[in-house]
Design brief:
The chain is built from five helices and eight strands; from the N terminus they run H-E-E-H-E-H-H-E-E-E-H-E-E. By secondary structure, the chain is an alpha+beta fold.
């Protein structure tokens, strides 16, 4: 009888020690659980973190840009309002590089003829744009017609210091690039800039081809596709040059991922130069 009692007490003691050890392991791993991957210095975290802290999978690639390390995360996030799909005559026939859309094709594949204005921040550029309400009620109206030209407000080129937060490829072969200011600035304001799909010919093909190659070089060949935005963590310091463009395809606030969403339909489109800084 005494032996049986001793065996029971030993079993209980062993069980309690195993529970304590499991609890200790839980406490040690709470900061970075498995299978999620935490990046505390960038406020990215585990399932207990807010959704704004990003995905829980490891990075798809790591970049070294001007001696700084940047991770790429595939978020799976898409725009709330997708681009108009290419017409059936273009579906399945694209080469991945040539512009495959129709909406405002003439404007999208042209560069503004006006002067280039330089801005030191994205916020200062946004403050210098015409209000969305004015552009949505433009006289004459801005239409989606393929021959729709640039309106006077779009005939200006801009050059801005920025940070690249995210990018995604569109079905028309444009790339949506979401830029903002230094994440430490607290600005929280973003702008969509587009590396355009290429014209088949014309005076701007060489410039737009060069810009497309610059973006490819910036992300070191790790181009996003149409399945969702790539997130760059930390955001990549860049300079961007291109033409003002008002996107009537998307209402303000419907483009961009949740963590970096522009509130305007203004863009830089097309990008004529993009480079790290």
């Amino acid at each position: 009888m005494r032996k049986a009692v001793l065996l029971i007490l030993l079993a209980v003691s062993l069980g309690m020690s195993l529970v304590d050890e499991a609890a200790a392991r839980g406490r040690r791993r709470r900061g970075c659980c498995v299978p999620c991957y935490c990046y505390p210095s960038y406020n990215w975290g585990c399932p207990s973190a807010t959704s704004a802290r990003g995905p829980t999978q490891p990075p798809t690639a790591v970049l070294n840009v001007n001696g700084r390390t940047h991770q790429i995360f595939a978020t799976g996030e898409r725009d709330e309002t997708p681009d108009t799909p290419p017409p059936p005559t273009l579906l399945g026939k694209g080469d991945g590089e040539t512009f495959a859309g129709t909406d405002r094709k003439a404007a999208k594949l042209s560069v503004g003829s006006g002067p280039t204005v330089t801005f030191s921040t994205v916020a200062s550029l946004l403050d210098d744009l015409w209000p969305d309400a004015q552009m949505l009620d433009h006289d004459p109206p801005i239409t989606k017609d393929p021959k729709s030209p640039r309106v006077a407000e779009e005939d200006r080129n801009v050059h801005v210091d920025a940070f690249l937060y995210a990018a995604k490829k569109e079905t028309d072969n444009d790339f949506h690039l979401i830029i903002g200011d230094d994440p430490d600035s607290g600005s929280g304001r973003f702008l969509n800039v587009e590396v355009s799909g290429l014209p088949t010919a014309g005076p701007f093909k060489t410039t737009l081809t060069a810009a497309r190659q610059q973006f490819r070089d910036l992300v070191q060949g790790n181009l996003p596709d149409a399945t969702g935005y790539h997130r760059y963590q930390p955001p990549i310091p860049i300079t961007v040059t291109g033409s003002n463009f008002y996107d009537v395809d998307h209402l303000p606030g419907t483009v961009g991922p949740s963590f970096a969403k522009p509130t305007t339909a203004w863009e830089i489109h097309p990008v004529t130069s993009i480079a790290p800084r």
